[in-house]
Amino acid sequence: MDDFLIGLRYSYRGLPWLWRKGVRLFVVVPLLINSLVFAVAIMWAGSNIGGLVSRIQEAAPDYLDWFVWLLWPVFVLLALLGLFFGFTLVANLIGSPFNGLLAERVERLTDPGGRQPDNLSLATELLRAPLEELRKLLYVVLLAIPLLLLWLVPPAYPFLPFLWAAFGAWVLALEYLDYPLSNWHLGTRQQRIMLRKRRMLALGFGSGITLLTTIPVLNFVAMPASVIGGTLLWSEQLKKGVLADRGDDEADGNRYDNEP
After folding, report:
1. Please, is 21 exposed, middle or buried when counting C-beta atoms within 10 Å of its C-beta (0-12, 13-18, 19+)?
2. pLDDT per residue over 179-193, tens digit each?
3. Is this prediction's pTM over 0.85?
4. Contact call for residues 114 and 85 (beta carbons, < 8 A)
5. b/e per residue, 206-225, with b = 16+ CB within 10 A?
6. What DSSP character marks residue 185?
């Protein structure tokens, strides 16, 4: 539980950094992208959320009608979480090249005397980052399939919001920790292996981001704030141990390639 609370705290630590000198320039573009995407999400939700919840209710068998009405608030919460989670992935796909640069700048400011990742260029990030986002999106789709199949099992309905919340927290933690970790050439598989060892830390971080994306006004700054929070988490909680495991002079993550 301590790790969960530590991770939760990091999801909000990026907020005071948003207008910090040396970071502002790298925040502006992700902030504009996130604001536009979430404005569209809020307008879409206002006109469609009722119909979406109704379709979720209609998917339940007739003999569970009485139970479905009791779960109506849960279905609304589930629809909202799905909506904001989906739009968060879209915003990250668009803003990914700038998020890597933001993570690099924050890490240099956090630990100016320590080891730093390779210098990034915008041109390189424009080519690399969207491909990494698509790779992560494929992982998300594959991970979601078992949860989607649970819609065919009515007795599982009361547990679905909690399972989807855990799923969303894990995916968002991977999403936002990817930027500082990719700067150190840790691939998506290596990242998953590493974070499984600190699963509660990752789930706490992702849960905080989930809450951040559902709070009005704060959801507009959720993407750059979460990138900063993920970078601080990496720098202060994970970096020293990972670099020690890899060896001071290694620039790749081969140690993790050999783990199951």
Report:
1. exposed
2. 898 888 888 888 898
3. no
4. no
5. bbbbbbbbbeeeebbbbbbb
6. T
